């Protein structure tokens, strides 16, 4: 773009420089010079547009190549109608048994394990937390439940059934994930909460009360019909997280995963939401990934991850008795 502008400016300089000289010599009238300049501008404009279009075409080509690269990538995990189908309300426990996992790296076959010798249990009606330093494998561990990848060694069992033998569609429909990276549609608050669910406004407002959205919605001219813009740009990060939590509660799935779900909220708002959600979590498997330890103060069991291994586990009081990594995290969070 800069080259095109410079080129255009140079042409104008040449026209007025040389043309002015000819006019002074009496070989051309001023009107002819101005007419020539106008016709030149009319010619240069489309030429510059062609250059711009070529730049856009090249950028688009790169994007298309990336899309086709992803589409052509073979997936080891196939979505089909095979496998044991999970029934809503019937999931009681998830167990990791001697699990090892590493990301496949074609250039480096001996890449290190991200998770090593993982043994843990998530039970229905209990809240389990996973804590640890950044990059220790917390989110990876939860993604294995969603079966984005298969483990390299060991097993993940749901009610004693290997996750590889479970119908993938019913597995993923059983899990609600509230993460830091929130998907927001350029649509109304109502549609962002319910997505494909069919519930009435009374139920939506009841859930809005749980997550602290009621006053916000009532203060808007269009209420639940307020359009929040692409990626939710018209509302704050805290309101986006509230909508995401409300969406998870509306889905009413058996497994709830909160991955830094309240990171954009202040401590008072966080405490309000966590208190209100307790009755919704009584018959669920609840997994919380947290950096801010105030989020997990009421967790039934806390697993501490360090360098891909579970190094400590227990409730808050039990872990405080050990002079371990959990206590270091508590001090750092204070």
UniProtKB/TrEMBL annotation:
Subcellular location: Cell membrane
Coiled coil stretches, renumbered: none
ABC transmembrane type-1 domain ranges (all copies): 1-59
Membrane topology listed for this record: Multi-pass membrane protein
Domain of life assignment: Bacteria
Keywords in alphabetical order: ATP-binding, Membrane, Nucleotide-binding, Transmembrane, Transmembrane helix
Transmembrane segments: 6-24
Signal peptide: none
A family per Pfam: ABC_tran
Residue ranges of every copy of the ABC transporter domain listed in the record: 94-332
Keyword GTP-binding: no
GO cellular component: plasma membrane
PANTHER family to which the protein is assigned, alphabetical: ATP-BINDING CASSETTE SUB-FAMILY B, ATP-BINDING CASSETTE SUB-FAMILY B MEMBER 6
Species annotation: Acidilutibacter cellobiosedens
One annotated GO molecular function: ATP hydrolysis activity
Primary location: membrane
Protein's name according to its UniProt entry: ABC transporter ATP-binding protein
InterPro entries linked: AAA+_ATPase, ABC1_TM_dom, ABC1_TM_sf, ABC_transporter-like_ATP-bd, ABC_transporter-like_CS, P-loop_NTPase, Type_1_exporter
Keyword Nuclease: no
């Amino acid at each position: 773009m800069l080259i095109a502008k410079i080129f255009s400016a140079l042409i104008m300089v040449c026209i007025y420089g040389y043309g002015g000289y000819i006019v002074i010599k009496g070989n051309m009238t001023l009107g002819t010079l101005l007419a020539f300049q106008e016709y030149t501008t009319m010619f240069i404009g489309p030429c510059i547009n062609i250059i711009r279009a070529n730049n856009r075409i090249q950028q688009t080509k790169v994007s298309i190549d990336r899309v086709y690269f992803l589409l052509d990538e073979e997936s080891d995990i196939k979505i089909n109608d095979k496998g044991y189908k999970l029934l809503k309300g019937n999931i009681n426990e998830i167990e990791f048994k001697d699990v090892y996992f590493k990301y496949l790296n074609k250039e480096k076959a001996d890449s290190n394990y991200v998770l090593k010798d993982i043994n843990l249990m998530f039970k229905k009606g209990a809240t389990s937390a996973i804590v640890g330093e950044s990059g220790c494998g917390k989110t990876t561990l939860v993604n294995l439940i969603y079966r984005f990848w298969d483990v390299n060694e060991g097993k993940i069992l749901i009610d004693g059934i290997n996750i590889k033998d479970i119908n993938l569609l019913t597995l993923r429909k059983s899990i609600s994930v509230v993460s830091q990276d929130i998907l927001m549609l350029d649509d109304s608050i109502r549609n962002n909460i319910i997505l494909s669910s069919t519930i009435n406004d009374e139920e939506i407002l009841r859930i809005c009360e749980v997550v602290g959205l009621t006053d916000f919605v009532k203060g808007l001219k269009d209420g639940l019909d307020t359009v929040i813009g692409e990626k939710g740009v018209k509302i704050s990060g805290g309101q986006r997280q509230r909508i995401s939590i409300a969406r998870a509660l509306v889905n009413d799935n058996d497994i709830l995963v909160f991955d830094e779900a309240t990171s954009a909220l202040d401590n008072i708002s966080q405490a309000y939401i966590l208190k209100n959600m307790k009755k919704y979590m009584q018959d669920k498997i609840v997994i919380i990934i947290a950096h801010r330890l105030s989020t997990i103060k009421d967790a039934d069991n806390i697993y501490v991850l360090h360098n891909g291994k579970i190094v400590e586990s227990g409730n808050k009081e039990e872990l405080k008795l050990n002079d371990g990594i959990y206590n270091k995290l508590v001090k750092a969070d204070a």
